[in-house]
Specification:
The complex is a heterodimer of chains A (about 500) and B (about 325). Chain A is an alpha/beta fold and about 500 residues long. Chain A has 2 domains: about 5-235, 3-Layer(aba) Sandwich (Rossmann fold), CATH 3.40.50; about 255-495, 3-Layer(aba) Sandwich (Rossmann fold). Helices cover about 35% and strands about 25% of the residues of chain A. Chain A contains 17 helices and 22 strands. Chain A has helices at about 40-50, 70-75, 95-100, 115-125, 140-155, 170-185, 200-205, 230-235, 295-300, 325-330, 340, 350-355, 370-385, 400-410, 430-445, 455-460, 485-495, and strands at about 5-10, 15-25, 30-35, 55-60, 65, 80-85, 160-165, 190-195, 210-215, 215-220, 255-265, 270-280, 280-285, 310-315, 315, 330-335, 360-365, 365, 415-420, 450, 465-470, 475-480. In chain A, the strands form 5 sheets. Chain A has a 6-stranded mixed β-sheet with strand order 6-7-8-3-9-10, with helices on both faces. In chain A, strands 16-19-20-13-21-22 form a 6-stranded mixed β-sheet, sandwiched between helices. In chain A, helix 5 runs parallel beside helix 6 and helix 8 crosses helix 17 (about 485-495). The longest helix of chain A has 16 residues, at about 170-185. Chain B has about 325 residues and is mainly α. Chain B has one domain (about 50-330): ABC transporter involved in vitamin B12 uptake, BtuC (Orthogonal Bundle). Chain B is about 75% helix and about 0% strand. Chain B has 13 helices and 4 strands. In chain B, the strands form 2 sheets. A two-stranded antiparallel sheet of chain B has the order 1-4. Chain B starts with 12 loop residues before the first helix and ends with a helix. The chains are: A alpha/beta (about 500), B mainly alpha (about 325).
Chain lengths: ~500, ~325
């Protein structure tokens, strides 16, 4: 056994993020580590590399119990970590990066550049990488940079390489090159922990898989013994959420299509997405982490630029250049990250609520306070926002109430389409049910909603149909009548010969 | 992925709320304390003359600092204001003295001497905003360009010569009085009142605060963040231009080496002491006025009581440190 992490506990300010989690890796094996957002993968890795300390449990590496106090500590013990954003110096040369902070010295204590170059070439050759080691690293692509990071680990005699979402910014060709590197490592007896949200990659390269959920290790299996669907099911688990399903009232809508997106693409995250939303419908958008859900929504809203595809709203082709254009066309967008992209924390509830409608509240540049006040009071009441007064800073509100204010920010604009990304994330069960019910009610009044959610029960309860994305492509559109967790998971795993 | 960090040690609620109180009213208290101290100690403090001396010395700083407040509220900073003052201060005499092009009508010449330098300074401010928004250059670096080049431009324009002049119509902006109040003080008051109104009551003002408070959220709410940012630098530049006019008119001379020298730091100091967060998302225009007055009064108090100006600089630095420290402590939860 190369690595054995057992019964690891970890809490942050009273919130338990790891609960007796375990992870074991054999020498020369490629171990997949998978789980949804917040499952505890990152914390586990950070404890292994010494970035965090553990509250309880044991870590044994190469037969000895270890207590790394920093990442430098674990590096010198033989653990190399390759992140998506690599911690290398882009403006230094390839050779300098490989030997960063431990350059070979001459007899006079100066850097031995010749030796450094020669050794850098030798180690890269092992990975079939023939590049000019004297050129700055920034001249090379993401895959090459990652291999340089791996080479750096190998020259430190790494016995274990951790790849944390190392492939998420690579294209298929680059991934293939990286996999070749992993196989080379394997031949030399170096083990790899491979974290990726692309399931196909796991099956292509990994020997075994460890699944984490809610801070626990819930399954360990040989890769060939676990089917993709089963893997997805294990990752998502059978959560019993207590919210009461919003009342469904869905005879197929009158058939008028409001939004029609065809073959949207942008970068490597969105490759080919088509979807349609009818008037007064709640359209669900499902998919695993990294399948391109949020990115697709951002394309519709023009928060990001699309490379290809067409989007028509209300029968007209659109060419929004920025969110303001989408807003003017009657589209609202509630982002998945309330804190980073939603609220302006220092501003009051009143100002946060009217942020988007501000241009319509002005008379020759001056805000009409009376109308503003009237709108704010109306929506606070309609949505049941609990706040001391409209003048209270929004950061003091609970997550659910902040979310209601953000919904109100768009509802007061009277939009045609409201895009909500994880509308119930991080809010309590009661508020969850309220928000879903609210969305249903609005849809019944004719508003179209595009709802992104990781919670399958939520989609099943609220959506009129769900479009499923997998690896940046829309792979299925499931009508309400056929919606089930089973059906969604099959589509999300995107198996060949998918069963109905 | 879970990214909870260990929290900073919690402060006792009582200590925290008193810090918040100090950060909110500390500047006002310091201001009142300084006045009380001077009434007791400094001879002839309560006189029109003392008031006028202090107000005229603080006027240009306040005019520039108001622009700086708007820039800082968006999360930026403008180091070029001193140099823009030099450019505007060099340009005005060249216009009414006819150095560039002889203008036959004195009235037209003076009018142009008021308008053109301010427009030019505003345009250079737009250039600052353009650098910052178009190529995402950090404001401190982008405005450093004109901080360095601006004074050079002013010197090249005047061949490095001192321009000495006497022009009552032009100098009214500094030496004139309306109802006994110096014109520059009136300009200051108007600028402060207008900016405070813009911040509080106009859509543009709220957009400034939103962009500084959370630019991503502002952008997703359809606020034209790029335009807002460019505009605040235009305003900052134009106000620096006005301040440049006041300074040269007051001195009856324009020296490109000296006009506005160190003004960027005085302005930033006034904003910081006035309680505006240097990280953006808030703007206290009246606080900036008060901050500038406190700094000026400290200096005056020390001078009037025989402490040399050099020592006053140290006290000024201490004030800024104290103000920023209190703000930071009060911010932490």
């Amino acid at each position: 056994m190369l690595l054995s992490m057992k019964a690891i506990d970890k809490s942050f300010s009273g919130v338990r993020v790891l609960n007796a989690a375990s992870l074991e890796v054999e020498p020369g094996e490629v171990m997949a580590l998978v789980g949804q957002n917040g499952a505890g993968k990152s914390t586990m890795i950070k404890i292994l590399t010494g970035a965090y300390s553990r509250d309880a449990g044991s870590v044994t590496f190469q037969g000895r119990e270890v207590h790394f106090s920093s990442t430098a500590d674990s590096q010198s013990a033989g653990i190399a970590t390759i992140y998506q954003e690599i911690n290398l110096a882009p403006n230094r040369t390839v050779a300098e990066n490989i030997f960063l902070a431990r350059e070979p010295r001459t007899a006079f204590g100066l850097v031995d550049r010749r030796k450094m170059r020669a050794e850098a070439r030798a180690v890269l050759k092992r990975f079939n990488l023939d590049i000019d080691v004297e050129r700055p690293l920034e001249n090379f692509g993401a895959a090459t940079r990652q291999m340089v990071a791996i080479a750096r680990g190998v020259t430190q005699n790494a016995k274990l390489v951790i790849m944390d979402e190392a492939t998420s910014s690579l294209d298929e060709r680059e991934v293939a090159v990286l996999f070749e590197t992993v196989r080379t490592l394997k031949r030399d007896g170096v083990a790899t922990i491979f974290i990726s949200h692309r399931l196909d990659e796991l099956y292509a390269i990994c020997d075994r898989v460890t699944v984490m959920r809610d801070g626990r290790t819930v399954a360990v299996s040989a890769m060939k013994d676990i089917k993709k669907l089963e893997l997805v099911r294990t990752m998502l688990g059978k959560e019993l959420t207590a919210f009461t399903a919003a009342q469904r009232n869905r005879e197929e809508a009158d058939g008028a299509t409001l939004v029609e997106a065809k073959n949207l693409s942008a970068g490597v995250r969105v490759r080919d997405v088509s979807l349609a939303i009818g008037k007064g419908e709640i359209a669900g958008l499902a998919g695993l982490l990294g399948s391109g859900r949020t990115e697709t929504a951002r394309l519709i809203y023009a928060a990001d630029r699309r490379d290809g595809g067409t989007l028509s709203v209300g029968g007209r082709q659109t060419a929004y250049a920025q969110p303001a254009d989408a807003i003017a066309d009657g589209i609202g967008f509630v982002s998945e990250d309330r804190k980073v992209e939603g609220i302006v924390p220092e501003m009051s509830v009143r100002e946060n609520l009217t942020l988007a409608i501000l241009p319509r509240l002005q008379k020759s540049g001056i805000v009409d306070r009376a109308r503003q006040q009237e709108i704010v009071e109306r929506y606070i009441k309609a949505l049941g926002v609990k706040c001391a007064s409209p003048e209270q800073p929004i950061r003091e509100l609970s997550g659910g109430n902040q979310q209601k204010v953000l919904l109100a920010r768009w509802l007061c604009m009277n939009p045609r389409l409201l895009i909500v990304d994880e509308p119930t994330r991080g809010i309590d069960v009661g508020a969850k049910a309220e928000i879903l019910k609210l969305l249903r009610g609005l849809a019944d009044e004719g508003l179209s909603v595009l709802m992104i959610s990781s919670e399958l029960e939520e989609l099943i309860a609220a959506a009129d149909h769900v479009t499923v994305l997998s690896d940046g492509r829309s792979v299925a559109r499931i009508p309400a009548a056929e919606l089930s967790e089973e059906r969604l998971m099959v589509a999300m795993a995107h198996q060949d010969g998918e069963a109905a | 992925m879970t990214t909870l960090d260990t929290t900073t040690p919690a402060q006792t609620p009582a200590k925290r709320s008193s810090l918040i109180w100090i950060s909110r009213y500390g500047t006002l208290v310091a201001f009142l304390a300084l006045i009380a101290f001077n009434m007791a100690v400094t001879p002839n403090f309560l006189s029109w003359q003392t008031l006028n001396v202090n107000l005229t010395q603080v006027a240009t700083i306040v005019i520039v600092a108001v622009g700086m407040t708007l820039v800082i509220a968006t999360g930026g900073i403008d180091l070029s204001v001193g140099s823009l003052m030099a450019i505007s201060g060099a340009l005005a005499p060249m216009i009414f003295l006819g150095t560039i092009y002889p203008i036959p009508s004195p009235a037209l010449a003076v009018t142009l001497a008021f308008i053109v330098p301010v427009v030019v300074a505003g345009a250079l401010g737009w250039f600052n905003g353009f650098l910052i928004t178009r190529w995402s250059i950090q404001p401190i670096v982008a405005t450093l360009v004109l901080f360095i080049a601006g004074r050079g431009i002013a010197q090249v324009m005047t061949n490095g010569n001192l321009q000495v002049f006497r022009n009552d119509a032009f100098q009214f902006i500094a030496l004139g009085r309306v109802f006994g109040i110096p014109t520059q003080v009136i300009i200051m008051a108007v600028v402060v009142a207008l900016a405070a109104f813009v911040i509080r009551r106009t859509g543009f003002g709220r957009q400034i605060i939103a962009v500084g408070g959370n630019e991503k959220a502002a952008r997703l709410s359809g606020i034209p963040a790029v335009r807002v940012k460019r505009l605040v630098y235009v305003v900052s530049g134009a106000l620096a231009g006005i301040a440049g006019l006041v300074v040269v008119a007051r001195n009856s001379a324009s020296d490109a080496n000296l006009v506005g020298l160190g003004m960027e730091l005085d302005a930033i100091a006034a904003v910081a002491v006035g309680g505006t967060l240097l990280t953006g998302g808030r703007a206290y225009v009246l606080g900036t006025l008060l901050g500038a007055c406190v700094i000026q009064l400290v200096r005056y108090t020390l001078l009037a009581n025989g402490v040399p100006d050099a020592a006053a600089l140290v006290v000024k630095a201490g004030l800024i440190v104290a103000a920023v420290f209190i703000q930071q402590r009060a911010e932490r939860g």
